[in-house]
Amino acid sequence: MFAEVQVMTERSHTNWCIAHEDFDGAATRLRPLIALCDEQGWQRHVAHFQIQGALVDSRRGRPEATREAVLAALRRGHRLGLSRSLLDAGLEALTAITEVEQSEPHDPTLSFYVSRLQSAQQSSTRSGAVRNTPADAPMPAADPRH
């Protein structure tokens, strides 16, 4: 239970750092967060934080670290069949993933997985109107004919 609370707390602090463009602070928080999740066996969280770390490294001007983090997350994500865990790491997640995949020597498995992520993102974008409705917005009245 303590580890779960610690992860939630650090995740919040990391997101705060990113929102306030404190990318060095976010990077400092992500390293132990990834290690803790890995130690606990929470691989979905590890992949999410690896992509988030890649986005932070990108903002810090560290292209090699970005590439390594994206590849590590893609390998883990593919092995676990993840999509939202990677895509929800940040608005630029799919862009970073696609750029790294295109810069690597052709790997059919990696290419297939990235195309699956692109399809998942397109699918969620199409249904985004429902998801982007504020929680306190009034619901449309039900049509009594249905």
Describe it for me?
- Helix content is 75%, strand content 0%.
- By secondary structure, it is mainly α.
- It has a single domain (2-121), classed as Tetratricopeptide repeat domain (Serine Threonine Protein Phosphatase 5, Tetratricopeptide repeat), CATH 1.25.40.
- Helix 3 runs antiparallel to helix 4.
- The chain is globular.
- Mean pLDDT is 88; it is low at 129-146.
Give the CA-CA distance, first to last residue: 45 Å
Structural class: mainly alpha
The CATH homology group name: Tetratricopeptide repeat domain
Number of H- or I-type helical stretches: 8
Total domain count: 1
Contiguous low-pLDDT stretches (5 residues minimum) are 129-146
Helical proportion, percent range:
over 70%
Instruction: Note the main sheet.
Output: none
Total number of beta strands: 0
Mean pLDDT: 88
Beta-strand content estimate: under 5%
The dominant shape is: globular
CATH architecture: Alpha Horseshoe
